[in-house]
């Protein structure tokens, strides 16, 4: 069993930010840090004081994290980015909001005395003495201290204070991972209430020393324990914090939810998984069926989460198509009007949205990627609405005269027709590229809808059912917000956003089969009608081919694809050729194309190169960041592995931004999480000359000076399925609606006041629900007897014992 924590983060928007540029505006973006470790960077929104981001992330973390902070920054091209302000949410704050922290919160000024990080390793002892007892404080080492100097490091020393006496360690130059091994002693009077204060400072020659954090030790508690040793988390100096006014730095709208889960062994979840799978396999509708009951008892606000968890569970069991087919039947059974089919946010609609993202995202990228890239690169002014045309934005034509409104409209229509035509052509060529499980699901959807609405007047309904998901809920949202679907790294500017919106509207019209109702909404879209009508015919032909592929062909293709290990992540990175031995030069890093599969991390000159090198996945021991001072960049990671002879090796890889760095680290950690021999510590610096740049150790193979972060990962659409976690999340939801399930059980039992689940199931239709209630009871008991479920006491300062 394991304790797992995750943060669901949605950075919505900001308002009333201060102007940082001479133009009276700012170029804001957000950096998200967990315990001072940058894990997320949003896109920059240019020239605004009220930015909208709308970006969502899920971060998996060790349960011991302390706080998550959101820094709003102003991007500058020629100088260091300005810090506008921050919002900090502690773990305790998030734990106090089980449904999540949501709303506007004021940005606060960033105080250097509060920007502390890292831990210090202390050994504390109470020793007997001739006259009085003595307090011995051994300052051993520190790790992950804040870099205060321009070289990306600090010159730390420690100041120990007790009862008016102060003693200091030596200064360790250029290190955020110093080792002192120095001991100090103080006379200790019995009953003395004064605390021992250990402060870390960055020494500066010409300016005042910078505060790095402190630890306050309760001497009374230490007197009782006699000895204590461990890693203590450095805390800010609240006494020096200046009082700041709220509101003058603007506000940030956030949605943040902390979820802690104790995941039991797989065997504990088998009864729940088997029961749900049995229901899906039977596919029989009735008053006691579980899937309709789950939908009925699921509120709108958590329906997407439940749909995603169920979908992943059944996808892992090979029953995704059967699960979705059951939902299709449920939706069709309660739909009388064909034009309202799959238009609500039902469990079927939400599950299909999740299904397409999990199973079809790579397909979406292959079809949409080139078109989206072209729109971004061209940056053409496009507008079809006469009331919004701005001729001045277009510039001059080849005759050096301003274009007329009619010319702008015609040129815009031509651009959109070209983009729409290219998209539809790419879609029509992609029948075989569409994942087999997606094709099979669409085929089943098409058949079910045709059976429900068989008349000639409903000829287009089966096609619209498919396009309602493929176009309206998948392709169109991706066109409007390519950043949120990982098609682009940055949000579009205002001009490109308008082009994308108009293109998405055209795709929606095609997906609606060009109905009169859709045309009547925006008459100014009429110039696209010839392309839309042609697109309808193309789309119907595409869907016909998509759903007509024989089952045998599907199985053959599935077998072919299962023999190939699809890339978990791929793309260009820069590898350091001298492995940290030589000086930093522009030629030290070489650009190569990397591909990570479930077998190996391989790299070559180009994606199509036949000659490539690789690191076997089973040989990876850690994937971690490299401190900035090592290569003059904060976007370098290291992959620590063993070669075929068992010798330790390190590959240094440079990424272009913090997001790419964390995405690669996350992917590498996920695929190697079950490797034997994973490291618990590592060196964040490099071994150059005769010592490590981080902690100045001279032993190359010595114990690392920082702890590895193998459990810090970002959730992605292509993550490996975690069956036990999905089952636990489903159990957690069912537990939250257990009262309603009991009520339904009593109703199906004829109004009997049943308070306990029958010991053995009979043949009544409500037996599925009775078995479910019994499974919930057993899981609740398993959790209550699980050691990981009992509350853990975290001391105020002691973070982790030395091993």
Number of strands: 29
Mean pLDDT: 85
CATH structural class of the largest domain? Mainly Alpha
Number of helices: 19
**What is the fourth-level CATH superfamily of the largest domain?**
GTPase Activation - p120gap, domain 1
Fold-level CATH name of the largest domain: GTPase Activation - p120GAP, domain 1
Overall tally of domains:
4
User: Proportion of β residues?
Assistant: 15-25%
- Could you tell me the radius of gyration in angstroms? 30 Å
Spatial strand order of the main sheet = 20-19-18-17-23-22-21
What does this structure look like?
It is found in: Cell membrane; Cytoplasm, Cytosol. It is built from 19 helices and 29 strands. By secondary structure, the protein is α+β, with helices and mostly antiparallel strands. It folds into four domains: about 1-110 and about 250-260, Sandwich (Immunoglobulin-like); about 120-240, Sandwich (Immunoglobulin-like), CATH 2.60.40; about 360-550, GTPase Activation - p120GAP, domain 1, CATH 1.10.506; about 570-715, Roll (PH-domain like). It has a seven-stranded antiparallel beta sheet with strand order 20-19-18-17-23-22-21, covered by helices on one side. The protein has a five-stranded antiparallel beta sheet with strand order 7-16-1-4-28. A hairpin with a 2-residue loop joins strand 2 and strand 3 (about 35-40).
């Amino acid at each position: 069993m394991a304790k797992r924590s995750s943060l669901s983060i949605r950075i919505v928007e900001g308002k009333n930010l201060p102007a940082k540029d001479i133009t009276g505006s700012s170029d804001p973006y957000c950096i998200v840090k967990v315990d001072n470790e940058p894990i997320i960077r949003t896109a920059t929104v240019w020239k605004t004081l009220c930015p909208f981001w709308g970006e969502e992330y899920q971060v998996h973390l060790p349960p011991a994290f302390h706080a998550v902070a959101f820094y709003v920054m102003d991007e500058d091209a020629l100088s260091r980015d300005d810090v506008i302000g921050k919002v900090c949410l502690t773990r305790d704050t998030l734990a106090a909001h089980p449904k999540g922290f949501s709303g506007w919160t004021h940005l606060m000024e960033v105080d250097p005395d509060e920007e502390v990080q890292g831990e210090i390793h202390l050994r504390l002892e109470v020793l007997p003495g001739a006259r009085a007892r003595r307090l011995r404080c051994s300052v051993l080492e520190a790790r992950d201290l804040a870099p205060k100097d321009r070289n990306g490091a600090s010159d730390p020393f420690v100041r120990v204070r007790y009862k008016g006496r102060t003693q200091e360690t030596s200064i360790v130059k250029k290190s955020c991972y110093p080792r002192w091994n120095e001991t100090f002693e103080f006379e200790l009077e019995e009953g003395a209430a004064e605390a021992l204060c250990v402060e870390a400072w960055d020494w500066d020659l010409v300016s005042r020393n910078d505060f790095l954090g402190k630890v306050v030790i309760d001497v009374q508690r230490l007197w009782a324990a006699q000895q204590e040793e461990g890693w203590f988390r450095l805390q800010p100096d609240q006494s020096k914090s200046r009082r700041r006014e709220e509101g003058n730095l603007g506000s940030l709208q956030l949605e943040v939810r902390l979820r802690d889960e104790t995941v039991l062994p797989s065997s504990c979840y088998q009864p729940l998984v088997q029961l749900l799978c049995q229901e899906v396999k039977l596919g029989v509708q009735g008053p006691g069926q579980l899937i309709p009951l789950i939908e009925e008892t699921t509120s709108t606000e958590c329906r997407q989460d439940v749909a995603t968890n169920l979908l992943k569970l059944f996808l892992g069991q090979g029953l995704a198509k059967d699960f979705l087919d059951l939902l299709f039947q449920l939706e069709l059974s309660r739909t009388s009007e064909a034009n309202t089919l799959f238009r609500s946010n039902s469990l079927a609609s939400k599950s299909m949205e999740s299904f397409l993202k999990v199973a079809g995202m790579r397909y979406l990228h292959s079809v949409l990627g080139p078109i989206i890239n072209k729109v971004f690169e061209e940056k053409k002014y496009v507008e079809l609405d006469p009331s919004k045309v701005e001729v001045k934005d277009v510039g001059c034509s080849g005759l050096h005269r301003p274009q007329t409104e009619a010319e702008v409209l015609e040129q815009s229509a031509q651009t959109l027709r070209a983009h729409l035509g290219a998209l539809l052509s790419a879609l029509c060529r992609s029948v075989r590229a569409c994942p087999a499980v997606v094709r099979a699901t669409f085929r089943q959807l098409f058949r079910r809808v045709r059976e429900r609405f068989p008349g000639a007047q409903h000829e287009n309904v089966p096609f619209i059912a498919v396009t309602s998901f493929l176009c309206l809920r998948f392709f169109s949202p991706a066109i409007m917000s390519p950043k949120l679907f990982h098609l682009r790294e940055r949000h579009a500017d205002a001009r490109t956003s308008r082009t994308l919106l108009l293109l998405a509207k055209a795709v929606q019209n095609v997906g609606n089969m060009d109905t009169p109702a859709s045309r009547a909404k925006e008459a100014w879209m009429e110039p696209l009608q010839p392309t839309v009508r042609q697109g309808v015919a193309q789309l119907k032909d595409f869907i016909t081919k998509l759903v007509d592929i024989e089952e045998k062909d599907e199985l053959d293709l599935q077998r072919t694809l299962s023999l190939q290990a699809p890339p978990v992540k791929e793309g260009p990175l820069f590898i350091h050729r001298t492995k940290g031995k030589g000086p930093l030069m522009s030629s030290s890093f070489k650009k190569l194309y990397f591909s990570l599969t479930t077998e190996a991390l391989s790299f070559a000159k180009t994606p199509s190169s036949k000659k490539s090198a690789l690191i076997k996945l089973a040989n990876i021991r850690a994937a971690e960041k490299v401190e900035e001072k090592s290569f003059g960049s904060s976007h370098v990671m290291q992959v620590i592995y063993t070669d075929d002879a068992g010798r330790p090796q390190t590959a240094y890889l440079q990424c272009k931004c913090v997001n790419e760095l964390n995405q690669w680290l996350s992917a590498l950690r996920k695929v190697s999480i079950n490797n034997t021999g994973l490291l618990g510590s590592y060196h964040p610096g490099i071994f150059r000359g005769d010592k490590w740049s981080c902690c100045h150790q001279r032993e190359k193979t010595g114990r690392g000076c920082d702890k590895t972060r193998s459990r810090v990962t970002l959730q992605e659409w292509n993550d490996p399925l975690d069956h036990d976690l999905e089952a636990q999340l489903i159990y957690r939801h069912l537990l939250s609606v257990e009262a309603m399930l009991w009520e339904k059980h009593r109703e199906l039992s004829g109004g009997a006041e049943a308070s306990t689940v029958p010991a053995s199931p009979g043949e009544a239709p409500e037996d599925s629900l009775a078995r479910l209630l019994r499974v919930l009871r057993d899981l609740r008991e398993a959790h209550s007897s699980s050691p990981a479920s009992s509350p853990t006491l975290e001391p105020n300062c002691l973070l982790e014992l030395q091993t």
